[in-house]
Amino acid sequence: MADVNRGKRPLSPHLTIYRPQMTSISSILVRITGTGLLLGALLVVWWFLAAATSPEYFATVDGVITSFVGDIVMALSAWALWYHTLGGLRHLYWDTGRGMDVETAEKLGLMMIIASVVLTILTLLIV
């Protein structure tokens, strides 16, 4: 059946007028960090495979991972791991039926960002 009101329905808000909420930003970041963790995991697997292959190849791969760019990628991977973990804990909290109101959900999103940065700094200082 044809939709007779097709041209009269309102359009979705455009990106130029839409203000993202903390809940949507934190949800998108959890998805991005989950995908981004693959890069760090692949680098670690590459490092282990190089260690099992030969000392020369391991020296090459170790040089890449311990370079300035490698250090940045691994530090961002540590942040992604903490952020993604905190996102999982937030969802476990939500599964109990608590924290679902907008104010609490926004506070949890902001706490995830702050806590992940603090935990990453502590991790980098300890390691």
Would you give an account of this structure?
By secondary structure, this protein is an all-alpha fold. The chain has one domain (21-126): 3 helical TM bundles of succinate and fumarate reductases, CATH 1.20.1300. Helix content is 76%, strand content 0%. The protein is elongated, with a radius of gyration of 21 Å.
Number of domains: 1
Distance between the termini: 64 Å
Radius of gyration: 21 Å
The CATH architecture = Up-down Bundle
Order of helices and strands: HHHH
Overall helicity: over 70%
Q: Specify the number of helices.
A: 4
Low-confidence stretches: none
> What's the total count of β strands?
0
If you average the pLDDT, what whole number results?
90
Shape: elongated
Q: What about the largest sheet? A: none
Percentage of residues in strands: under 5%
**CATH-defined topology:** 3 helical TM bundles of succinate and fumarate reductases
Per CATH, the class reads: Mainly Alpha
Summarize the structure in short:
The chain has 127 residues and is mostly helical. The chain contains four helices and no strands.
Keywords:
mainly alpha, 127 residues, 4 helices, single chain, 3 helical TM bundles of succinate and fumarate reductases
Can you lay out the helices and strands and say which pair or pack?
Elements: H1 22-53, H2 55-65, H3 68-95, H4 102-126
Helix pairs in contact: 1-2, 1-3, 1-4, 3-4
